[in-house]
Amino acid sequence: MTLPLSFPPVAECVPRPEDAAADRQALDALREQVLQANLALPRHGLVLFTWGNVSGVDRARGWMAIKPSGVAYERLQREDIVVLALADGARVAGTLKPSSDTATHLHLYRQWPGIGGIVHTHSTHATAWAQAGLPIPALGTTHADYFHGEVPCSRPLRPDEIARDYEGATGEVIVETLAGRDPAACPGVLVSEHAPFAWGRDAAQAVHHAAVLEEVARLALYTRQLDADRRPIGTALLDKHYLRKHGPGATYGQQPPAART
Ligand SMILES: O=C(CO)[C@@H](O)[C@@H](O)COP(=O)(O)O
């Protein structure tokens, strides 16, 4: 039998020690990023008990790291973070059971190559809007500084979807709900009868967006309590606030150099 000309020489198939060390470093860095993002959830008051999870990705290596299921935040360690292959969910590192929402996270990363972190919480006010099946209207500039329009609420999942692949279908319904919108301009969603999901360029930014989503949900609830007929702000104000921070040429969030001499 003749081997194909492109068949690599055996030496090229053997992993080099420096590659293994770089992989180990990348794995530790990803797990640390995801650990710190998870620990930020209780600090921001976004979770009670273990009702939430954060994931992050290393797209170059095709990895997703996520909180293990049901582990208390105060006990969570870097080595507990489970790392899976983005392509097929195969385990890369970690021995614990990954979050029950893993299939939702995987689906969103596969559909939206621009995101690098995802958060799911049951934060009180955002969850109240989700349970009511209502989108959060853009009632003021706090909202418009992050969301270029309402925070949409998905349709409820159908019984057949819940029976077939509940978490995968949750990811599908989120993508369906965002259809026609740029996920970067709408960094969160409410899943009807469930709770919010938020995302960002990395796990830390996804947590920031989850906290903003909870705050705009709280503000919108109070606003509508004070004035049940309050309408969303107009396009001029919405565009002004969103685009000056996130539009073409915007440098919002750029930090000054760490050390100035
Ligand atoms: O949505 C829910 C429960 O309604 C879950 O996200 C929440 O309990 C967290 O589950 P995990 O501990 O991540 O498996």
UniProtKB/TrEMBL annotation:
Residues 32-221 form the Class II aldolase/adducin N-terminal domain. One of its GO terms (molecular function) is L-ribulose-phosphate 4-epimerase activity. InterPro entries: Aldolase_class_II_sugar_metab (IPR050197), Aldolase_II/adducin_N (IPR001303), Aldolase_II/adducin_N_sf (IPR036409). One of its GO terms (biological process) is pentose catabolic process. It comes from the Bacteria. Its cofactor is Zn(2+). It is an enzyme of class 5 (isomerase). Keywords: Carbohydrate metabolism, Isomerase, Metal-binding, Zinc. Its EC number is 5.1.3.4. It catalyses: L-ribulose 5-phosphate = D-xylulose 5-phosphate. One of its GO terms (cellular component) is cytosol. Belongs to the aldolase class II family. AraD/FucA subfamily. This is L-ribulose-5-phosphate 4-epimerase. It comes from Sphaerotilus sulfidivorans.
